[in-house]
Design goal:
mainly alpha
């Protein structure tokens, strides 16, 4: 709302100046452009994941990620690490059986509480 009711003392109308033709470069350089850094001749980029320069960078990155994963999973971090490893080792049927067992025990506890409170 402030722009609607304020004075235009410092900002001239955008359409008061003549326009320019599309496809023709502007006469002044763009203020938001950044100069392109010069490439150093004779230098090549670094290889990800090791010193075998002939391999695909994607494969090298995948190998490095697998190596990090095996390194971190092999060193169990105490009690929580062991619990996490045991949880990851569970199969789908083990998880479903455990969930079913928990639900049954909760239903049995609710039924016992209802029987106690019946009178």
């Amino acid at each position: 709302m402030g722009g609607l009711c304020s004075k235009q003392s410092n900002s001239p109308d955008n359409f008061s100046r003549p326009g320019r033709v599309l496809g023709v470069p502007s006469s002044k350089p763009s203020a938001n452009s950044v100069p392109v850094p010069q490439k150093i001749p004779g230098s090549s980029g670094r290889t990800v994941g090791g010193g075998d320069g002939g391999s695909d960078p994607r494969n090298a990155a995948a190998r490095a990620a697998e190596e990090r994963a095996t390194r971190s999973s092999s060193a169990a971090q105490g009690k929580l690490g062991k619990q996490l490893a045991a949880q990851k080792a569970q199969t789908r049927t083990d998880v479903l059986a455990e969930t079913s067992r928990d639900e049954r025990s909760a239903r049995d506890a609710d039924a016992a509480a209802e029987a106690r409170n019946w009178n």
